[in-house]
């Protein structure tokens, strides 16, 4: 989203969502129109909240372990599952630990939970066998690393 003139968004006159009547417009063009004429203005007026600071400070909350690991494994700089690059496990540990450190520094009261049924979403079952094997290995190593961290409670469910 273009952030130039961000504060002037309220002064802009909204334009109609559809151009002059045509028989058809492409899906790509329709999405461009929605983004430029509605979404970017709506997000400029959105209210941003700090959920951790406002609501979850002292209250116990859960973090989905599979979502946490998927966030780590989907980092574009990590190169897991790409045949043209090497396996960067130390970088994966760094991403995981800095993500958790953000919660710990703010004294958040959280625990990480894993459900066995969500395992395949993290390893991207159905992708190439190389990608699945790479993500499975990385997930296993990151999971073991989480279990060995002192300040983080990890629970697994079948």
UniProtKB/TrEMBL annotation:
The keyword Nucleotide-binding applies. Residues 44-156 form the ATP-dependent RNA helicase DDX60 PIN-like domain. It comes from the Eukaryota. InterPro entries: PIN-like_DDX60, SKI2_subfamily_helicases. GO terms for molecular function: helicase activity; hydrolase activity. The keyword ATP-binding applies. Keywords: ATP-binding, Helicase, Hydrolase, Nucleotide-binding. It holds the Pfam family PIN-like_DDX60. One of its GO terms (cellular component) is cytoplasm. This is ATP-dependent RNA helicase DDX60 PIN-like domain-containing protein. It comes from Mycena metata.
């Amino acid at each position: 989203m273009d952030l130039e003139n961000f504060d002037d968004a309220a002064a802009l006159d909204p334009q109609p969502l559809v151009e002059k009547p045509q028989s058809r417009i492409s899906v790509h063009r329709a999405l461009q129109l929605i983004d430029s004429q509605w979404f970017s203005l709506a997000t400029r007026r959105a209210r941003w909240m700090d959920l951790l600071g406002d609501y979850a400070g002292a209250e116990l909350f859960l973090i989905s372990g599979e979502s946490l690991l998927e966030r780590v494994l989907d980092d574009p700089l990590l190169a897991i599952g790409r045949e043209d690059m090497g396996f960067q496990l130390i970088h994966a540990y760094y991403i995981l630990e800095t993500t958790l450190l953000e919660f710990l520094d703010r004294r958040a009261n959280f625990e990480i939970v894993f459900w066995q049924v969500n395992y395949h979403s993290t390893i991207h079952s159905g992708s190439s066998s190389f990608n699945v094997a790479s993500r499975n290995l990385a997930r296993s190593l990151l999971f073991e690393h989480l279990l060995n961290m002192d300040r983080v409670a990890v629970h697994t469910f079948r």
